[in-house]
Specification:
Elements lengths: L8 E7 L5 H10 L3 E3 L7 H10 L7 E5 L8 H12 L5 E7 L3 H11 L14
Parallel strand pairs: 1-3, 1-4, 2-3
């Protein structure tokens, strides 16, 4: 990174569907982060490259929400992508959110929205 480039902080927010990732991103946005929710993991590197190329757009602090829908090799791909971007950002953190099964069931029954993985299975249990 050259001396005229901006410092960049990246937070990857991930976790169980329904555990509060979108709420966490909204809180980070309130703290001045540029947030993108449900970003396919394959787009993390191109997004970081775009942010580096356009410092005038205010990408000093970025929070990206990614989840299991970036399958089939989510863990492997995320590790590889994070390895490839670590030299492009000054600080990179991963926040993994979780919740109890009972809490997740309650949240989905209260919102009455279909779970993102319900297409593949008939139950959340």
């Amino acid at each position: 990174m050259s001396s005229n480039e901006q410092d960049m902080e990246l937070i990857i927010v991930t976790g169980l569907s329904g555990s509060g990732c979108s709420v966490a991103l909204k809180s980070l946005e309130d703290l001045g982060y540029y947030c993108v929710d449900c970003l396919p993991i394959e787009l993390i590197t191109p997004f970081i490259e775009h942010a580096r190329a356009h410092p005038e757009q205010g990408y000093e602090k970025i929070a990206l929400g990614v989840d299991i829908r970036s399958k089939p090799h989510y863990d492997q791909q995320l590790d590889q992508i994070l390895e490839s971007v670590k030299d492009r950002v000054d600080q990179c953190r991963i926040v993994f959110l979780t919740a109890s099964d009972a809490c997740l069931h309650k949240r989905y029954s209260e919102t009455r929205r279909r779970h993102p993985l319900a297409v593949q299975c008939n139950t959340l249990a």
